[in-house]
Fold:
Amino acid sequence: MPARKAEGTAPLMTFDELYSGLEPAGRRFLDRVRAVNPKKDFGFRGNYLGGPDEGVSFKRIEEQWITKKGKSEKLDPQYLPEDVFEAFEKMMQAMERDLGKRLLVESGFRSHAYQLYTYLYYLPKHHYSLIETGHWVAFPGWSEHGAPRRQAIDFINQEGINGEDNVEEFERLPEYEWLQKNANRFGFELSYPRGKSGITFEPWHWRYSQPR
Structure:
């Protein structure tokens, strides 16, 4: 993972790379987590989305900077299917015309292997509960981040607000209000709205679908 992150290619990593160097016990642990069916075992309300279609071309997104407490910070490179990136760019250009600001891609495409890594990364934060962690990070194959046909983007604003620790902080942003009014015109919709039964509200998480 350190090498992949240094290259900026972590979101594209394979299971072979994730398993590389692990002891047998570690491999067995990953196998056990991968075998979990969140819908059957935890009552997850989403559907299995599978992996990316073959031949999907990705756009690498670089040079994204946020400013937190007066200090600049560069985001890790992210990837989006080329058509999704084009729609995202058109939407951000419109937002800049209206608000003078734009949102950045904090997380775009994630391979199944990277999704598993992300899930395990957040496991300690949720007291090692598979169920609790699953409320915030989907299992591989169940995440819109790994399904280009309904590709998800997690947004962060230029001041580093992403809603991770304070959902309402993102919800109050003028950028979020703009998305609610305009995102549909560019083919994006909110995946997890407030009040939807069994789903955690995520105002930063939007998925792409063909414009209606």
